């Protein structure tokens, strides 16, 4: 058995023993109702937060397979900020918040290990895509280094690293909207 979560037309399958949260669903009225999202903070968060035992994963999902859509040149900076903002929000809720997920946040900020992942879908053939993903990972490593993040992963539905516990695949009925293959 596994648990499925869909984010940006990507289906993630997590093992049953993982505890997974779609962070955007924590706030009932959508992004605009999320505290600290507007000026002056402009906080942005990772899409998924998951526990694999005592290991915490922050997972950001990006889809660049729509026609005309290209990876943002500032993707590594955006990713690093989302990791930082997510950790800050988890810390605030854990210590000062009055939220139904307060206990989850307390566990998150006291996790034995924190890993971060960029689950990215992008165009590219099977020869060039791994090189592009490796380049993205190098940029993420550099941008996240000041936060002392040691485990950064880049996953893709065609090239998913073996050390991640989840699988990801494209939503079948959405294939016509994408131009990645």
List the helices and strands and how they pair.
Elements: E1 2-7, E2 10-15, E3 18-22, E4 48-52, E5 55-64, H1 75-96, H2 102-109, E6 113-122, H3 129-144, E7 152-155, E8 167-170
Parallel strand pairs: 5-6, 6-7
Antiparallel strand pairs: 1-2, 2-8, 3-4, 4-5
Helix pairs in contact: 1-2, 1-3
Name its key features.
three-stranded antiparallel sheet; alpha/beta; globular
Give an overview of the whole structure.
This protein has helices at residues 75-96, 102-109, 129-144; strands at 2-7, 10-15, 18-22, 48-52, 55-64, 113-122, 152-155, 167-170. Helix 1 (75-96) crosses helix 3. It starts with a strand and ends in an 11-residue tail after the last strand. The model has no long low-confidence stretch (mean pLDDT 87). It is globular and about 50 Å long. The longest helix has 22 residues, at 75-96. The protein has three helices and eight strands. With 181 residues, the chain is of the alpha/beta class. Strand 6, helix 3 (129-144) and strand 7 (152-155) form a beta-alpha-beta unit. The strands form two sheets. The chain has a five-stranded mixed sheet with strand order 3-4-5-6-7, with helices on one face. It has a three-stranded antiparallel sheet with strand order 1-2-8, with no helix packed on it.
């Amino acid at each position: 058995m596994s648990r499925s979560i869909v984010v940006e037309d990507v289906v993630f399958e997590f093992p049953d023993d993982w505890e997974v949260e779609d962070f955007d669903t924590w706030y009932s009225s959508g992004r605009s109702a999320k505290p600290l999202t507007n000026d002056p903070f402009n906080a942005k968060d990772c899409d998924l937060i998951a526990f694999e035992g005592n290991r915490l994963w922050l997972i950001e999902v990006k889809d660049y397979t729509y026609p005309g859509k290209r990876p943002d040149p500032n993707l590594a900076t955006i990713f690093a900020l989302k990791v930082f903002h997510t950790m800050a929000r988890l810390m605030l809720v854990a210590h000062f918040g009055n939220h139904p997920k307060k206990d989850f946040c307390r566990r998150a900020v006291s996790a034995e290990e924190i890993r971060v992942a960029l689950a990215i879908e992008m165009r590219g053939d099977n020869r060039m895509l791994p090189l592009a993903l490796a380049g993205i990972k190098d940029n993420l490593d550099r941008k996240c280094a000041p936060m002392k993040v040691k485990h950064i992963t880049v996953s893709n539905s065609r090239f998913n690293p073996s050390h991640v516990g989840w699988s990801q695949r494209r939503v079948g009925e959405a294939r016509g909207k994408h131009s990645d293959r």
